[in-house]
Amino acid sequence: MSEDYIEMNECEKLKLLDISKKSIKEKFRYIKKKDWKTYFECIKNNDVLTPIAILLDARKDTITVKCSFDNNRYVDNDNMHKLLIYGEEKIDLNYDNVLAIIPNDSFKYLYDDEDITDSFVQCMDILGIDSYSGKFMYAGIVNEESGDLGFASLDFTELINETTVYMIDEDSAIWKRYFAESYRLYESEQYKLAFLHSFIGFESLIEYLNRVLFNVYLNEQNELLNYELENYNKSVWTPVSFIDNHILKTQSYQRLKHLENENRKLIKDKLVTIIRYVNDMEKKPAESKIADFTYYVKFRDVLAHGDSCEREDLKQHPLYKKYYNVKESKFDFELIYRDFFEHIGNLIKELVD
Questions:
Q1: Which of 2, 80, 122, 266 has its CB surrounded by the most CB atoms within 10 Å?
Q2: Residue 326 main-chain phi, psi, to 5 deg
Q3: What phi, psi does 77 have (nearest 5°)?
Q4: How high is the pLDDT of residue 76?
Q5: In the chain, where the domains are located
């Protein structure tokens, strides 16, 4: 920002701080105070789904999945009605909006809509879940005969799973979609890709917050301009000279131009600027808030560019020892992912508090 400007008076400064804080809070109004306690407690207990669901305002739905068990075979030569049934189901959803799918460990086995599970199903288990593609695999033992209820052919039965699905809204901001996709990769144990996608989401979140603040300052400048052009001394100033000397040189206008500049570093400039303008901080204290985020940039670079984990700039940071497994010569990207969302939670909480 240019140093040649007219500083804001206290009234204007407090007004912009108030509007900036309220505008950011409005974007996260769905997160209540009690949610933040849950957010950080869950991360400490290695539960990432709950915090991300809180951050994205994901809703929890239950979907009834009818499992087609065309794959079956007899498992007992002495009992031709005892069968192994197995299969794979893909839940038909728009996965741009899916955070997680969680099949129920228990199935329902129905005959004419009557639940006959206890009498006809010996066991039924989830064999695996591919959260990224929305599939789950299952298998179990079913008997077509029951001493209590008689005979129930596979041809007339249904196998049902009540599957929990976490969804974000169709019109959600793009940063939420990246975070949702990153979690599905995380659940599929693709931890490096999960971290890369989460970082893309974080960059998108910074741009989103920057746009919120830009609109705050733009609206303020428009109001100021309308007022001043109606009331300035026309005997002294022309419209152009007045705007040049009393609008374009104001600190608030300089901030607006700074927020509009796309050619700034995301973490070291845009994020620092957001913290400064929302929480009224000087540059150095604001920069201290993003110290660990600059280290996550290095992790992103390691993955994106195939750099060595032995880079000296990585080793010099205290987090290196926490994340780097010397014996296996690799980073613990599962831990990095969890810590990354802890830092994101702390950032958002500080901006809205």
A1: 266
A2: -65, -40
A3: -60, -25
A4: 76
A5: 10-57+172-352, 60-167
pLDDT digits (tens, 9 = 90+) for 164-202: 999 999 999 999 999 999 999 999 999 999 999 999 999
How far is C-alpha 244 from the chain's CA centre? 43
Helix or strand (DSSP H, E) at 76: none
Rounded CA-CA distance 319/308 in Å is: 16
DSSP secondary-structure letter at 21? H
Q: Give the CA angle between residues 302, 305, 309 to the nearest 5°.
A: 30
Would you say 320 and 302 are in contact if contact means Cβ atoms under 8 Å apart?
A: no
- What lies within 8 Å, CB to CB, of 121 at 6+ separation is 107, 109, 140, 141, 142, 143
**Rounded Cα distance, 177 and 196, in Å:** 13
CA-based radius of gyration for the chain: 28
- The widest CA-to-CA distance across the chain, in whole angstroms, is 108
- Which pLDDT score, from 0 to 100, does residue 229 have? 63
- The low-confidence residues of the chain, meaning pLDDT below 50, are none
What local confidence, expressed as pLDDT, does residue 26 receive? 97
User: How many whole angstroms from its chain centre is CA 15?
Assistant: 31
